[in-house]
């Protein structure tokens, strides 16, 4: 079954909307290690006009292989995304991170 969500490219959003969107420094992101947390944007589609098209959720980092592959465990309870649960393993990249702890 395909998942109903995908991770947003926070780097692209930061470049396109630099006056309203900030992203942690490259140094902050590169210093992340096991046990730290990163916030990611999970985009999804909904037919309900009252529902947003994304949720910002925290992921606890389990393994940093390089900037192109980071594994984490979802540390939030999604409010709108039905097929995503707290505790799920998420693979993401440096470009997906919008905040750090």
Can you put this structure into words, describing what you see?
The protein has helices at residues 10-16, 26-30; strands spanning 5-7, 37-44, 54-66, 69-74, 89-92, 97-100. With 101 residues, the protein is mainly β. Strands 1, 2, 3, 4, 5 and 6 form a six-stranded antiparallel beta sheet that branches. β3 (54-66) and β4 (69-74) form a beta hairpin. It is globular. The mean pLDDT is 89.
Q: What string gives the helices and strands in order?
A: EHHEEEEE
Strand content: 35-45%
Which ranges are low-confidence, i.e. pLDDT below 50, for 5 or more consecutive residues? Answer: none
Tell me the structural class: mainly beta
Oligomeric description of these chains: single chain
How far the N terminus sits from the C terminus, by CA atoms, comes to 32 Å
The overall strand count is 6
The helix fraction, in percent, is 10-25%
Strand count, sense and closure of the main sheet? Answer: 6 strands, antiparallel
Shape: globular
């Amino acid at each position: 079954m395909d998942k109903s969500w995908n991770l947003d490219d926070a780097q692209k959003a930061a470049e396109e909307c630099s006056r309203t969107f900030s992203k942690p420094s490259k140094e902050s992101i590169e210093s992340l290690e096991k046990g730290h947390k990163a916030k990611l944007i999970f985009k999804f589609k909904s037919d309900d006009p009252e529902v947003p098209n994304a949720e910002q959720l925290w992921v606890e980092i389990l393994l940093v292989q390089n900037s192109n592959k980071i594994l984490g465990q979802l540390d939030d309870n999604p409010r709108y995304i039905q097929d995503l649960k707290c505790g799920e393993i998420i693979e993401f990249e440096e470009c997906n991170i919008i905040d750090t702890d």
